[in-house]
């Protein structure tokens, strides 16, 4: 029984004005950074849901990683439901990560992972700025509910389930919707790097 990572990258990037997952940071596309981070947590068990820009993004991924949601225009709930429905039956659980949550670190993802061999129902999600959200871990007990999501309905309702617990994760508040968001992210990283080197 293994944990998978579902990386959602199906959106059209309308506000960015171009496929944001192709935007280069430190010499490589953002999607490459995110996929490698996910692979470090779940080697060989990363699935990336593509949609609007599947033709352009697919070459960045291995064949095993690619899931294409033909109904991507229906919203994130549709992509999440489709992705979960494609996970193998032996999946113990899944971490759902948005492909534009570029500040989420390897340690952040590890904090969501189950420990030991517990088979109890389990939900662990990020909490930032008083909000519960992605990335989030769901044990396979909740796969049927996730696979039933429709349209733009995300998994927010499940994050208030009685078994759900939270992990403080300020980095999860950072997502890239616009070019200005990306520029701010770059500036913050440069400042952090300069401070660390002082």
Automatic annotation (TrEMBL):
Its EC number is 2.7.7.76. Keywords: Magnesium, Nucleotidyltransferase, Transferase. GO terms for molecular function: molybdenum cofactor cytidylyltransferase activity. Pfam families: NTP_transf_3. Residues 6-161 form the MobA-like NTP transferase domain. SUPFAM superfamilies: Nucleotide-diphospho-sugar transferases (SSF53448). It comes from the Bacteria. The keyword Magnesium applies. InterPro entries: MobA-like_NTP_Trfase, Nucleotide-diphossugar_trans. CDD domains: GT_2_like_f. PANTHER family: MOLYBDENUM COFACTOR CYTIDYLYLTRANSFERASE. This is Molybdenum cofactor cytidylyltransferase.
């Amino acid at each position: 029984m293994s944990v998978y990572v579902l990386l959602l990258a199906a959106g059209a990037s309308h506000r960015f004005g171009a496929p944001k997952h192709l935007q280069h940071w430190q010499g490589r596309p953002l999607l490459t950074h995110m996929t490698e981070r996910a692979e470090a947590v779940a080697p060989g068990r990363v699935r990336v849901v593509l949609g609007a820009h599947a033709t352009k993004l697919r070459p960045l991924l291995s064949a095993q990683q690619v899931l294409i949601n033909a109904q991507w225009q229906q919203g994130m709930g549709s992509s999440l439901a489709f992705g979960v429905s494609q996970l193998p039956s032996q999946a113990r659980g899944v971490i759902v990560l948005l492909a534009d949550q570029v500040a989420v670190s390897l340690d952040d993802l590890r904090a969501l992972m189950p420990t030991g061999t517990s088979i109890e129902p389990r939900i662990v999600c990020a909490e930032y700025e008083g909000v519960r959200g992605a990335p989030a871990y769901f044990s396979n007990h909740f796969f049927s509910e996730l696979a039933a999501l429709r349209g733009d309905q995300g998994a927010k309702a499940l994050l208030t389930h009685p078994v759900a617990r939270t992990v403080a994760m300020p980095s999860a508040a950072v997502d890239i919707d616009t070019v200005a968001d990306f520029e701010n992210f770059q500036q913050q990283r440069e400042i952090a790097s300069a401070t660390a080197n002082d």
